[in-house]
Design goal:
The structure is a single chain. By secondary structure, this protein is mainly beta. The chain has a single domain (2-205), classed as YmcC-like (YmcC-like fold). It is built from four helices and twelve strands; from the N terminus they run H-H-H-E-E-E-E-E-E-H-E-E-E-E-E-E. A twelve-stranded antiparallel β-sheet has the order 5-4-3-2-1-12-11-10-9-8-7-6. A hairpin with a 2-residue loop joins strand 9 and strand 10. Mean pLDDT is 82; it is low at 1-39.
Amino acid sequence: MRSGAFRLLSPVVMILSAALLAGCDRMLGALELTGNVSGTAPQLIGPERLRVSIPETGAVAVLGPVSRNADVTVWQTLDGITLSFRHGIVVATRGLGDDLMSADVDGDITLLRGMGGSGYYPHIRSYLDGEDRTVFRAYQCRQAGVAPDRVAAGGQDISLQRTEIACVSPGHSFTNIFWQDGSGQVIRSRQWISPAIQYMDTERVAR
């Protein structure tokens, strides 16, 4: 499952930044791309861009926003992979293979807004098993650390607040890291997706 998931993302690594940022879909014909890559670029709804990488394989892509529903924004690659975020937190992925089907992030949002306590709160995630049945995994999460941090983002060295959220369940644990600006917007993050994909890094970038 792991190799299949990453094969979907790898074909767009070399072309995605140019195609989305410059709007040049003529590259598709020139490179004679076939298979999962569509000849029609995503219909973007805003100028924002999101750089996403998977450290496990080194795969990198730049995504643009294609839809918003309440506080959830869906970002898409050129070949149709989508990532859904709620206030900068991943709530679903589609097209990666070992996808995150859904995630309850109410507790994470409360914590990142500075309204959470020091104790644990529940976090529920869902995946599909080998027979396409929905499997739910329950975690207990808490703030593991918060501190100012200077990081390189958007080509600049800026001051952000770094927040670590540690989640545990029987047999598994992970730690997500979020970097927020003064307005509370998530500028960078490292978030656990699934056993095959493992962590995903995100960064808001200029168009």
